[in-house]
Inverse folding.
């Protein structure tokens, strides 16, 4: 069972990102503040859940969270500032958008760029430990998946509807055949065997 809070005296926001390791598309991040009585029996790290469970939880989180926000940084900015900085920037933008000001931040992972003067606590695999981080992971993942499914219609031969931009064999094979498109992350050293093609 996930821990509800790291420190019960303060308003906590859990933060997580989705799409950091993808070959294409933006990175998404979410920040979530949960009420003291928040509970859902299925809530867990988004990677441990089915797509159906994630969608169910997305609806539940949005209806029951004290506050939540989702933000994205596109592939062009990722190439410009690097994926780590882009992930942190997306988290910062999500935090900027919260309707409640958090007093402490729980960050999934082992590094974070300080946000304003709010103390933060980095938790490795935190999305499987704290409810607010798990909730953030689900929102980031579901919003990004929906976004990649939209991009799929523009470039269906990469099958982003299925692989969501990750470097699957199918995606890599499509890159070799069709080259890179405008949504690929050029800084990720994924150039195909042939010259890049800009659609």
């Amino acid at each position: 069972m996930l821990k509800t809070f790291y420190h019960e005296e303060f308003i906590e926001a859990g933060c997580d990102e989705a799409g950091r390791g993808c070959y294409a598309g933006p990175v998404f991040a979410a920040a979530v503040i949960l009420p003291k009585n928040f509970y859902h029996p299925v809530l867990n790290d988004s990677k441990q859940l089915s797509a159906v469970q994630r969608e169910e939880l997305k609806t539940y989180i949005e209806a029951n969270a004290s506050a939540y926000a989702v933000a994205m940084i596109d592939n062009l900015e990722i190439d410009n500032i690097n994926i780590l900085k882009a992930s942190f920037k997306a988290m910062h933008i999500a935090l900027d958008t919260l309707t409640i000001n958090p007093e402490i931040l729980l960050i999934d992972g082992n590094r974070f760029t300080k946000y304003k003067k709010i103390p933060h606590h980095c938790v490795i695999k935190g999305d499987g430990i704290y409810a607010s981080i798990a909730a953030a992971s689900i929102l980031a993942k579901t919003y990004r998946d929906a976004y990649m499914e939209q991009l799929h219609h523009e470039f269906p031969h990469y099958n982003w509807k299925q692989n969501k931009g990750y470097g699957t064999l199918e995606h890599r094979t499509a890159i070799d055949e069709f080259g890179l498109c405008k949504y690929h992350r050029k800084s990720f050293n994924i150039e195909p065997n042939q010259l890049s093609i800009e659609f």
